[in-house]
Amino acid sequence: MKKYVIFKDDDVGKDIQGLKRWIDIVLKNNAKAAIGLIGKYMKDRELMQFLNSLEEDRIEIFCHGFSHGRLPFILKEIWRKNRLFPVEFDRNSKSHSLSLIKYRDAESKYLKRKTICFGPPGNVWNDSVIDPLLKNDFKLMFSWVKAKHDLFTIPLTDNFKQSSLKEFVKKYNKNKDRRIYTLQFHHANLSDEQFNLINEVIDFLKNKEDRIFITPSELLKISKKDKEIYDLISPLN
Fold first, then answer.
1. How far is CA 183 from CA 33, 97, 143, in A?
2. How does DSSP assign 114-168, residue by residue?
3. Which listed residue, 1, 34, 123, 154, has the most CB atoms within 10 A of its CB?
């Protein structure tokens, strides 16, 4: 039975040099990745030239919001309890639509490809985001929980925070039986030690665990022929 891995890198636009370094490691190791582009950064010429130069079947771009509105860390616990502070994709359907329309408009001007996958900033969303996503032609969403209707969901598994392969394997072993293993990155937050560790992690996943690196679009195609994968990502309805 085939097992898969998706590298999910968030916050693309904040650190172009770090992004290039991360992508270079992925490509040199013959792996693949999904990178979450923040819409407001599409006006950056250097970033767009780099993203448009990438092979879509190796590096797939997904929408990571337009503004990436989020809360300072110190306020997150307060927000979890009462939701008093609005963040992007945790408000209402109208605000979700506006963000996604802005993203699509910028995408049509600056990107040579159209994204079909969405990853909410901070992995925060509510059910009212689903209809705006569908209306704006998104097919997939990264999340810790399934969508209730009509939208396919790529399950998140782990965040990459380790500084040694031993630490990574210990965490990985808790989820090693999952057919879809999604490892979330924030390239702008990686240390030099962690950048180097990515090489070992890719080697471990490919050659020790026999996992196949895929993009979100490939996962969607696989689900049409693999019932178990379909059941893992299909909506709850």
1. 10, 28, 12
2. ---EE--GGG---GGGHHHHHHTT--EEEESS--SSS-EEEEP-EE---SSHHHH
3. 34
CB 4 within 8 A of CB 174: no
Rounded CA gap, 91 and 128, in Å? 8
In CATH, what number is assigned to the domain containing residue 189?
A: 3.20.20.370
Q: What is the DSSP letter of 209?
A: S
How many domains, in total, are found in the chain?
1
Q: Taking residues 110-136, what's their average pLDDT?
A: 94
Residue 171: is its pLDDT beyond 60?
A: yes
- Residue 156 belongs to what domain range? 3-233
180-233 tens-digit pLDDT: 999 999 999 999 999 999 999 999 999 999 999 999 999 999 999 999 999 999
The span from the CA of 89 to the CA of 97, in Å, is 9
Kindly indicate the confidence band of residue 73, based on its pLDDT and cuts at 50, 70 and 90.
very low
pLDDT band at 68 (very low <50, low <70, confident <90, very high): confident
Q: Interior CA angle at 62 toward 94 and 217, to 5°?
A: 115
Q: Strand, coil or helix: what is 9?
A: strand
Burial of 77 per CB tally in 10 Å (0-12, 13-18, 19+): exposed
Which token pair is 180?
Answer: 């879809």
Q: Which tokens go with 228?
A: 């178990």
Quote the CA–CA distance of 237 and 229 in Å, as a whole number. 16
